[in-house]
Amino acid sequence: MKFTVENMSCGHCVRAINNALHGVDAAAKVNVDLANKQVDVDSDTLSVDQVIAILQEEGYPATLKA
């Protein structure tokens, strides 16, 4: 799943996103591309809606990238 997250701007954002997603699914593979404002998530348990909700709760509104 690839998401666009426009308001990421620093290493803190990367850590916060990783920690939030791994807090729900420790086995998830998360790649945060700060330069392209993209988050890739590979998870057997998280759905698109769950990832969007988790990121929104952390203050990072996300949209699914087509």
TrEMBL record:
Segments forming domain HMA: 1-63
PROSITE patterns in alphabetical order: HMA_1, HMA_2
GO MF: metal ion binding
Superkingdom, natural source: Bacteria
Keywords: Metal-binding
The keyword Coiled coil belongs to this UniProt entry's keyword annotation: no
Descriptive protein name: Copper resistance protein CopZ
Organism: Acinetobacter populi
